[in-house]
Structure to design on (652 residues):
């Protein structure tokens, strides 16, 4: 256990937590922005996946990390535009559209993957940033984007309009601002941020692999709700989730090396491993059950206005 | 426009959009859409084996589709069907393996089915209670519970019940296995009868019982329901319990009819497809059957067309159909309104 303690109080551990937190934070802060404008954002998973895919394809084609980032953002914005057309323009059910877009993204990325590289599992190895965090330009870009969006929502005139679109769309319309246009804009900015998160996943992995978003989009949305739709809290909770997940990974490593020493993983070790694995989810669930009633959703969330 | 005609119009629009999108994707890989669609139909509806396989694929989707539909009627989106199904499969496998060898078949099957429904129902009820009492959104709770259930089942199985060096439980006793029928090579089995009974039962509950009326009232408008003295809490918890139990019932197909044991990852994805099925069926039990047959056809057809185009085409098509149904519903409603206004002026 002391080996675990040593590992947890190290700089490498914090770096690992941040590495996990940043793609998640991009998706979650992007989702918070979208939801504050009044659109339920269940398509975060699709945007992360599209972002990762676009980044890998662009990085593979050009050999440039910058192009990879641009490709990832563009792909996720495309998903956001489809979502905007369906939910804002056609007033389709927002939850249904989100889930269907996720399903579609899983299928379409594999389909195009097969078309481009002859494999439905992964792309060829691309340029990337690997496990670098503090020296990675992509990390800093994401960190700055998260802060910028948070400040924009709280302070900028556009942020005020986005909040009004989610809380009092009728008031916004009364002063002559198109609610639909504000929501589309929020979806695009939020989508771009989620795409940046997806690009990070692919560039850290030096390529795309099928379903590499692995449910992060859903966790991101859970965090948005937990944080009461406040971007600064969203970012902080993502960091907390990163710490829990890094702890879980470290525990797995410690248990594995202990198992190697004794030959087999003990029953208690296995139980501990499972506990660690579900810890972030259980923690999210418990906090959700405790705070859900107190946190206030945007008033017009989920309602399409004609 | 009658309700049935409206639903038919929505379905037709969705199908046309899906065919157009699918054709575009087929053209992109340099194949002929006509050839792919023809192959899809020939291999699914063209012979007895294909038809049986479509029914085989559709059977579990009837259960998961009904599960989602019951939630939808009460105004809840049960995305936790995937986890409720896994819990039901696990309970069914455990019960089936634990039964003494001489158990009569009727009792063995009933016990296994009851265990599956109870396990799925418990998870569903917990999700409903978290929403009803604590206000935690059922979509998020469902997703979190799915992740937790998968990890916990793998650990429980690995530590206590799986056959050594495998991720499956010991086989269920002979008496608990459902007979298969149909052309050689298909695993179409008697659980399809349970699926039919479930459809009829849910249709009856929704149309004829006080519980069903409460679900529909709460689903249509919480405020109106409250004014009529129907509380959302009880309706939500009971609807989610029934929804989870229906998801668990799919174990009759997977465990009792098909694999004769619980395996890790068995039935994975059927819960999410249940969402597509329920939306296609517009939340009606009869519609669920149609939706399950369509998705079953696509699932089996995907394997048949894999030599022409990647079978991932089917996932994209399913998504397109769901989106098209969701988008067509408000659009068709708007057409109706406009038609009514034009009629009123004229």
């Amino acid at each position: 256990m002391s080996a675990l303690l040593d590992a947890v109080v190290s700089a490498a551990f914090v770096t690992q937590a941040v590495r996990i937190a940043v793609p998640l934070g991009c998706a979650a802060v992007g989702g918070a922005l979208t939801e504050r404008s009044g659109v339920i954002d269940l398509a975060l998973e699709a945007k992360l996946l599209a972002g990762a895919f676009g980044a890998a394809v662009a990085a593979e084609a050009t050999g440039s990390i910058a192009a990879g980032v641009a490709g990832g953002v563009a792909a996720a914005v495309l998903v956001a535009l489809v979502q905007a057309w369906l939910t804002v323009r056609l007033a389709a059910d927002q939850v249904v559209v989100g889930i269907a877009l996720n399903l579609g993204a899983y299928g379409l990325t594999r389909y195009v993957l097969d078309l481009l590289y002859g494999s439905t599992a992964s792309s060829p190895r691309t340029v990337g940033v690997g496990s670098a965090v503090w020296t990675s330009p992509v990390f800093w870009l994401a960190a700055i984007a998260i802060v910028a969006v948070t400040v924009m929502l709280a302070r900028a005139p556009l942020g005020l309009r986005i909040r009004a679109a989610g809380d009092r769309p009728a008031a916004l319309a009364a002063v002559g601002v198109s609610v639909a246009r504000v929501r589309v804009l929020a979806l695009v900015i939020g989508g771009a941020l989620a795409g940046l998160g997806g690009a990070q996943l692919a560039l850290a992995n030096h390529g795309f692999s099928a379903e590499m978003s692995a449910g992060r989009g859903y966790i991101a949305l859970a965090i948005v709700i937990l944080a009461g739709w406040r971007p600064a809290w969203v970012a902080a909770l993502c960091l907390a989730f990163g710490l829990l997940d890094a702890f879980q990974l470290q525990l797995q490593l410690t248990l594995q090396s202990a198992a190697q020493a004794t030959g087999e993983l003990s029953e208690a070790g296995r139980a501990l491993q499972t506990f660690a694995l579900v810890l972030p989810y259980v923690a999210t669930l418990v906090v959700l059950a405790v705070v859900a009633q107190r946190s206030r959703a945007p008033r017009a969330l989920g309602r399409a206005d004609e | 426009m009658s309700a049935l005609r409206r639903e038919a119009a929505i379905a037709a629009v969705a199908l046309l959009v899906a065919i157009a999108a699918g054709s575009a994707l087929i053209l992109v890989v340099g194949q002929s859409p006509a050839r792919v669609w023809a192959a899809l139909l020939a291999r699914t509806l063209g012979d007895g084996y294909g038809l049986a396989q479509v029914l085989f694929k559709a059977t579990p989707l009837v259960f998961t589709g009904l599960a989602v539909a019951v939630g939808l009627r009460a105004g809840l989106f049960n995305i936790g069907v995937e986890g409720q199904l896994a819990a039901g499969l696990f309970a069914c496998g455990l019960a089936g393996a634990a039964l003494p060898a001489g158990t009569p078949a009727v009792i063995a099957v009933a016990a296994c089915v009851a265990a599956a429904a109870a396990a799925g129902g418990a998870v569903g009820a917990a999700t409903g209670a978290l929403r009803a009492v604590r206000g935690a959104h059922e979509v998020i709770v469902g997703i979190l519970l799915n992740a937790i259930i998968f990890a916990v089942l793998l650990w429980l199985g690995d530590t206590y019940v799986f056959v050594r060096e495998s991720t499956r439980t010991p086989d269920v006793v002979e008496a608990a296995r459902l007979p298969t029928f149909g052309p050689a090579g298909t695993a179409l089995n008697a659980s399809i009868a349970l699926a039919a009974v479930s459809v009829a039962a849910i249709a009856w509950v929704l149309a004829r019982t006080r519980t069903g009326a409460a679900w529909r009232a709460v689903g249509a408008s919480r405020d109106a329901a409250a004014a009529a003295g129907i509380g959302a809490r009880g309706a939500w918890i009971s609807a989610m319990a029934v929804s989870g139990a229906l998801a668990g019932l799919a174990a009759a197909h997977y465990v009792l009819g098909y694999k004769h044991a619980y395996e890790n990852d068995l039935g994975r994805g059927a819960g999410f497809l249940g969402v597509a099925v329920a939306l296609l069926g517009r939340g009606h039990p009869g519609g669920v059957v149609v939706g399950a047959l369509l998705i079953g056809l696509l699932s089996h057809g995907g394997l048949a067309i894999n030599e022409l185009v990647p079978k991932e085409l089917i996932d994209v098509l399913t998504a397109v159909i769901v989106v098209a149904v969701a988008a067509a519903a408000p659009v068709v409603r708007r057409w109706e309104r406009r038609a009514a206004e034009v009629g009123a002026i004229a």
About this structure: DSSP finds 14 helices and no strands in chain B.
